[in-house]
Amino acid sequence: MTKQKYTLSVLVILCLGLVGCGPSQETKELQAKAKQMLGALPTSMPGAENDTPELIALGKKLYFEKKLSQNNTQSCNSCHNVEGKAAGVDNLPTSPGAFGKTGDRNSPTVLNAGFHFLQFWDGRAKNLHEQAKGPILNPGEMAMPNEAEVLKRLKDDSEYPGLFAKAFPSAKDAITYENLAEAIAAFERTLVSPSRFDDFVNGDHSALSQEEQNGLQTFISSGCTSCHGGKLLGGDSFRKLGQVNPYETNDLGRFNVTKDASDKYFFKVPSLRNVALTGPYFHDGKVATLEDAIKKMGYHQLGQNLSEADVTKIAKFLGSLSDKTRTN
């Protein structure tokens, strides 16, 4: 056998060996743990099975419709940008309304929102349908004076009467505020964002790098899953901000809805999906970087001073939760 042939044979054997090598025992155990404690994102949101193409198309047009704001300057997409690689937010601490007034809470991502147990930081809307009705009439947001003016604009438009009729074929008067909200919700139910983490949970051991796997292990061992658990890694409970060490804020959170003193400073736990793309962070948008957010959560919620090394590891893992179509 010539030297060249021998070298080629060795390379073939090495390649076959590498192909034959499966995941390490540690990776297998981590996959099993992640599947049990977190799980993969479902392929569709609750209620999506009833959404027709016509309803979704109408909802998408309405989502980008600036006529739904008093001065024709804002749409749903203004604060919850889903165009291109945008992750359903405006990446501002808090968002300006139609007339320039800035809100007092950070705009959460609309991606995967239909999986959440309630909507808004304080949970004041029970679902996407109810949530969609709020900003249009909010004086600090889209600032329309009332439902009647919203419907008048839609009825006077050359396209909307026909689009509503197709989306709601059995309705005598298809253009209603409830139908508007349902159409927007139908479009939002299409905004499911699968990630490399889901591939990992579903059995692809190579979907996460070793650094990301180390970060996942640190995320779990540090106790982050005590709040950020389940398929959304959050989005399914309220927790007091400053659970162990107080967090300085004047926002009373859930209390503003319930008026129950025990709800003071409680907020919906945000989902960590796409968190690497949705900064700045927290309800007030005052935390600029993901690493700083991780540090503050460790301190305020878990009573831990996470090391720089652990913060870096966790941040690496959280990056794997980003929508695969919205990352560079």
TrEMBL record:
One of its GO terms (molecular function) is metal ion binding. Its cofactor is heme. Residues 54-188, 210-322 form the Cytochrome c domain. Its main location: periplasm. GO terms for cellular component: periplasmic space. Heme c 1 binds at residues 76, 79-80. Heme c 2 binds at residues 224, 227-228, 297. The keyword Heme applies. This is Cytochrome c peroxidase.
